[in-house]
Amino acid sequence: MIRITNDPIDNNAVLESVQNHRAGAVVLFLGTTRNVTGTRETDSLDYECFESMAIKQLEALEATARQRWDIVEITMVHRLGHLLPGESSVAIAVSSPHRVTAFECGQWLIDTLKEEVPIWKKENWSDGTHEWVHPGMED
Amino acid sequence: MTLYIKLFAVAVQKAGTTNLEIDCPTPTTVADVKQAVVAACPALSEIANHCRFAVDDEFATDTTIVTENSSLALIPPVSGGA
Predict the structure, then answer these.
(1) Cβ neighbours of A107 in B, within 8 Å
(2) pTM of the entire structure?
(3) Which of A5, A111, B32, B82 has a CB 3.0–4.6 Å from the CB of B28, allowing a cystine?
């Protein structure tokens, strides 16, 4: 299941979506918003996305993962909009016959999502300033 | 031909629009579109080299062909995930 949503992520629904009698392992990764980056404090975050391409990229990640590993189910959910510290911005769940596969695949999915899926976050700092986060791009 | 480039995140902040209109000879390539974007909107020049282009919802290279039916987007380094 691939979903981009403005609603809070339902962790249990993500887990249930990958459960299957063929699976001997289920791995769930939650990316949660941090309130401290270095020495700066974050009040909130805003996420935006290029939705048609993001869905295509997520589908491509799932297809590649299924070629590379023996996977039963994959669910990737990314949240958009305004998030407070502690909330989940992304959930990735993988079920597979064996745990090593599920861990490896989950790690690869989140690492690759962070490089290839057109979603951006804006830090709303506690000092009242705002900043889009673009890794590798210095102002 | 007239092309419209979808902009996101810091590119919107710099350009002041979510949809940049440019004029290009037809057909053209992503490399030429990139030059035309910077010419049309100099505020994007400092970030353009860090951005990728998407054509029809796929990452493109400099040699990807662009026609008037192409859907184009400027993709700054992404930061989803956490």
Answers:
(1) none
(2) 0.95
(3) B32
ipTM at complex level: 0.94
CATH of A2-126, one of 3.40.1360.10, 3.90.1170.40, 3.40.50.300, 1.10.530.10: 3.90.1170.40
Put the strands of the sheet holding A73-79 in their side by side order: A2-5, A73-79, A88-96, A25-32
Q: Which residue of B lies nearest to A45 if distances are taken between CA atoms?
A: B82
B-contacting residues in A 104-123 (Cβ below 8 Å): 110, 113-122
Do the Cβ atoms of A128 and A57 come closer than 8 Å? no
A65-118: per-residue pLDDT in tens?
Answer: 999 999 999 999 999 999 999 999 999 999 999 999 999 999 999 999 999 999
| Interchain CB contact of B8 with A (< 8 Å) | yes
A76 contacts A91 by C-beta, under 8 angstroms: yes
Number of domains forming the structure of chain B = 1
